[in-house]
Amino acid sequence: MAMKMDRMAEAMSNGHVALRVEGVYVDVYASGQVRAVAVDEELAPRGARLGTLIADLINKAREQAQAQVAESVRAVQADPRIAGIIEQVGDAPERSLPAPAAVDDPWDDDDDPFRRRSRIAAPDW
Q: Which domains does the chain have, with CATH numbers?
């Protein structure tokens, strides 16, 4: 379960896809943030088509990165242990916190080893 959760967190934070078509290379995070764009001047098409090609590659890379993240989430959600935890937690953020347990404090000030005691002071019984 921990491994699945780690993979999901990694995918959500760093999931990206790189695509290369006709001399254009793009690398895009699942969030849609473009990580890199590179154009091979010898292979890349010229003119207005280049902008469309880059935009299409970015969109395809983003969709693939999002699909990878979604697969990681599905893998975690499919784990019956996670489903049990979700069922137990339910509406926990909407519920009020339980009262803290009362703890009987056995500490007595006379037990303090650092408290200075006078040899001549009267006892405070």
A: 1-85 (3.30.1310.10)
- Measured at the CA of 86, the angle between CA 74 and CA 79, to 5 degrees, comes to 40
pLDDT of 70 above 80: yes
- pLDDT score of 34: 83
pLDDT the model gives residue 44: 64
CA-CA distance, 41 to 50, in Å (whole number)?
Answer: 11
CA 120 to chain CA mean position, Å: 63
User: Is 1's pLDDT higher than 70?
Assistant: yes
Q: C-alpha distances in angstroms, 52 versus 10, 20, 93?
A: 31, 14, 45
Tokens of 46: 């010229």
Token pair of 52 as six digits? 């469309």
**Contact in structure between 40 and 23 (CB atoms under 8 Å):** yes
As a whole number, the mean pLDDT across the chain is: 76
If we measure between CA atoms, which residue out of 47, 42, 17, 37 comes closest to residue 29?
Answer: 17
Interhelix angle for 80-89 vs 49-78, to 10°?
A: 80
